[in-house]
Each structure stands twice: as structure tokens, then as C-alpha cells.
């Protein structure tokens, strides 16, 4: 396999009940790297630890180091954010590596990046720094969109941009490897790219669990949901616009039902929008669901998966539904050229009418729906295994 290594994961940015792409990556890497005989210290705070336990991350080779934040999180997000940055700095100043430890900053947020950076500069000969950079912040003019959008959430995008302005120079100069999730992101670090020190990490799904579930289904599942969405309720993901899209679908198909799997900061906005559009009978909110039978049953009862993200560097959420043979509809984002070359109907970014038409086209044409679904499923089964992704990365960063 690989030579055994000692890892320090810094995941202080993990927060909430949902699961970001970066969170999913570090959890699935940890699950497999520990199983393969590597030792991992995972540094996080209470909310991050709770996320890992919901995902059932446990192994004898994993030690969780939970930072005590005291009462500070009670004073709101900003205080908690700053406190986690300071906690990260303290970790970077007190940890002592063994022989050659690998430190992995699981996100580009400062609470994850600074401890890895400090260990690198303190112990250059004893530490290898692997930096996660899974999405470049949008420009201040565009905000969270790549096309037309009424609300671009520029303030949220500004804080993300500002954080990366501080983080990027440190990664560019001191990181040994940078993990990115598409070819466009590789260009953000040209020196690393020239040296072969960037690793493109495409998404993955738990194929073993999905295939096992499908083998246990003894009868055909009734199709209850005309479409399903899975993902964070975040400004990037287009969840508010999805309600507008579904209202347009309902005008053509009054009984159409959309299932929405996920949670996040826009949940209350989504609930309010559903009520204002009088779509309570047409949209069912499931909240966040862990990988397993409850979620998988919804996929088997759905016809189409919708992925209306306006700004995305990849997107693993739809791939899980596509593994069940569901065709996807999404905006034509640049990153989807490598992520979803098959199985997805793509429409101009921000065009809600075209998005609606694409959904209706699939719902009204079973032959096309099954054809695209089969193509997408074949693509996912062939190349979207977590074992494969985790092995690709560890072979590269331990070489």
C-alpha cells in the first residue's frame, strides 16, 4: 500500500449540522488512511467533532483532540470564528512533531491553515504541509454567481475573499502540496503545478454502501418525488432560486413534488419562501440525512436530481443520487466539465426558465430520463469510489 505516516488534521472550520465538501473529504480520507495503518490526530472543536460522529468516524488509529472553546461560541458566530483562529494559532505553537509528520489543513480558512503553517515554519525538516484549497473565492463584483442572479450575497463572498487573501501567500510559499478539486483551481498555484505538487481531488461517493443497499431492495420503489435536491442550504447552492424554479414546474404539473435533503444557514429563508409561494404540498424538507437507507430510499423514489448551484468548484452531492440512476439538471458551471461530463442537462447560468424547461423535459420524456440516468450512473460507478480517491491522494503526498 503506502509507507505508514503520522498525520495531524486541522479541521477547526467544521461547523453546523450540514457537511461541506471539504468536511466530507477529510472525514473520508481519515476513515481510509487510518484503516490502512496510518496514525491520525484530528484537531477540531465540539461542533466539528459532532460532525465526525454523525458520520461514524471512529478507529483505533484516530485520536480526536477537541479544543475547549468554553462559553465563547455563545457570543455569536464572529466571536466563535476569531476564537477558533486563536485556538489554531495555539495549536501551531504547542504541538511537537515526531519524525516526519504530515500536517493537513482541511480548509483554507485561517483556523485550519495557521496551525499547519506555524508547524511548517517551526519544524521545516520534520513537517510536510498538505493544504486543502477546494474553492477560490469569487470576485467582489460577482459574488456567489457565475451568471445572472438577483441576490449575489456579496457580503458573505467578501469575508471569504478576505480570508483567502491572507491564506494564499502562505500556501504558495510554504505548503508542500496543495489539494484542489478541479483543473481550473490548479492554476491558482502555478509553482506547485509546475513541480507536480498540486493534487486534483475529484469527488466520490460511498459506492460499497450504495451497491449493498440496492442489492437488498426486493421490490420496485414507487416514484414519489419528481425531483430531489441534496446539499447545503448555502448562498452558493441556489436553494432559494430552486423554490422559484419549482413554482414554475408546478404551474405545468400541479402535483409535482420536490424533496430537499440538507440544512444550513438559509433554512429559514427556504421555509419562508415555500410558504410565500404556497408550495407546502409540493416541497418536502427532510433536513440533513446521513448516508444510508433513509436517504437512499428517497433517491430510489425520485425521478431527477436538481443541482442549482450558482457558484461551485465541483459538487459531490448530485453524484450520490446519480449512482441510483437519476439524471441531473444543473447550471453550466465551468467546473462541471470535469465533474459531470455525462448524465446532466446543463443550462445557462442563472436562467431559471431554462432550468425549469430542462426538468420538465426529463419528466415528460421517460426514454431520455432513463438514458441520461444510465450514462450518469455508469460514470459514477466507474470512477467515483472513495477508496480510489483516498489512495490517489495518499500515494501522492507520501511519495
From TrEMBL:
Gene3D superfamilies: Glycogen Phosphorylase B
Organism: Candidatus Woesebacteria bacterium RIFCSPHIGHO2_12_FULL_41_24
Protein name, per record: Glycosyl transferase family 1 domain-containing protein
Record CDD domains: GT4_PimA-like (cd03801)
InterPro entries: Glyco_trans_1, Glycosyltransferase_grp1
SUPFAM superfamilies reported in the protein's UniProt record: UDP-Glycosyltransferase/glycogen phosphorylase
Glycosyl transferase family domain: residues covered: 227-377
UniProt-listed Pfam families: Glycos_transf_1
A GO term, aspect molecular function: glycosyltransferase activity
Superkingdom, natural source: Bacteria
Amino acid at each position: 500500500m503506502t509507507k505508514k505516516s503520522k498525520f495531524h488534521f486541522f479541521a477547526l472550520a467544521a461547523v453546523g449540522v450540514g457537511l461541506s465538501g471539504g468536511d466530507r473529504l477529510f472525514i473520508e480520507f481519515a476513515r481510509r488512511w487510518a484503516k490502512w495503518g496510518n496514525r491520525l490526530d484530528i484537531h477540531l472543536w465540539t461542533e466539528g467533532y459532532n460532525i465526525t460522529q454523525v458520520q461514524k468516524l471512529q478507529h483505533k488509529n484516530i485520536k480526536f483532540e477537541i479544543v475547549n472553546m468554553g462559553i465563547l461560541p455563545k457570543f455569536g458566530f464572529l466571536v466563535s470564528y476569531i476564537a477558533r483562529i486563536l485556538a489554531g494559532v495555539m495549536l501551531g505553537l504547542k504541538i511537537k512533531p515526531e519524525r516526519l509528520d504530515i500536517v493537513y489543513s482541511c480548509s483554507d480558512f485561517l483556523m485550519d491553515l495557521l496551525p499547519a503553517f506555524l508547524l511548517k515554519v517551526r519544524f521545516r525538516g520534520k513537517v510536510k504541509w498538505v493544504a486543502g484549497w477546494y474553492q477560490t473565492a469569487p470576485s467582489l463584483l460577482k459574488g456567489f454567481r457565475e451568471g445572472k442572479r438577483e441576490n449575489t450575497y456579496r457580503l458573505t463572498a467578501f469575508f471569504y475573499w478576505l480570508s483567502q487573501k491572507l491564506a494564499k501567500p502562505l500556501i504558495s510559499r510554504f505548503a508542500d502540496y496543495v489539494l484542489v478539486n478541479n483543473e481550473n483551481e490548479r492554476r491558482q498555484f502555478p509553482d506547485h503545478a509546475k513541480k507536480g505538487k498540486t493534487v486534483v481531488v475529484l469527488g466520490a461517493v460511498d459506492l460499497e454502501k450504495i451497491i449493498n443497499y440496492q442489492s437488498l431492495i426486493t421490490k420496485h420503489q414507487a416514484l414519489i418525488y419528481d425531483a430531489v435536491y441534496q446539499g447545503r442550504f448555502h448562498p452558493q447552492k441556489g436553494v432559494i432560486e430552486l423554490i422559484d424554479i419549482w413554482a414554475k414546474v408546478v404551474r405545468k404539473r400541479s402535483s409535482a413534488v420536490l424533496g430537499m435533503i440538507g440544512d444550513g444557514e438559509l433554512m429559514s429563508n427556504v421555509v419562508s419562501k415555500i410558504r410565500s409561494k404556497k408550495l407546502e404540498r409540493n416541497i418536502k424538507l427532510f433536513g440533513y440525512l446521513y448516508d444510508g437507507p433513509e436517504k437512499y430510499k428517497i433517491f430510489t423514489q425520485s425521478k431527477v436530481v436538481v443541482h442549482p448551484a450558482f457558484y461551485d468548484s465541483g459538487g459531490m452531492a448530485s453524484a450520490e443520487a446519480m449512482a441510483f440512476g437519476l439524471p441531473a439538471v444543473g447550471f453550466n458551471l465551468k467546473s462541471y466539465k470535469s465533474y459531470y461530463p455525462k448524465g446532466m442537462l446543463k443550462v445557462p447560468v442563472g436562467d431559471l426558465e431554462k432550468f425549469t424547461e430542462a426538468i420538465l423535459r426529463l419528466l415528460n420524456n421517460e426514454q431520455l430520463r432513463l438514458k441520461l440516468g444510465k450514462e450518469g450512473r455508469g460514470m459514477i460507478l466507474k470512477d467515483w469510489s472513495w477508496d480510489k480517491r483516498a489512495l490517489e491522494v495518499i500515494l501522492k503526498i507520501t511519495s
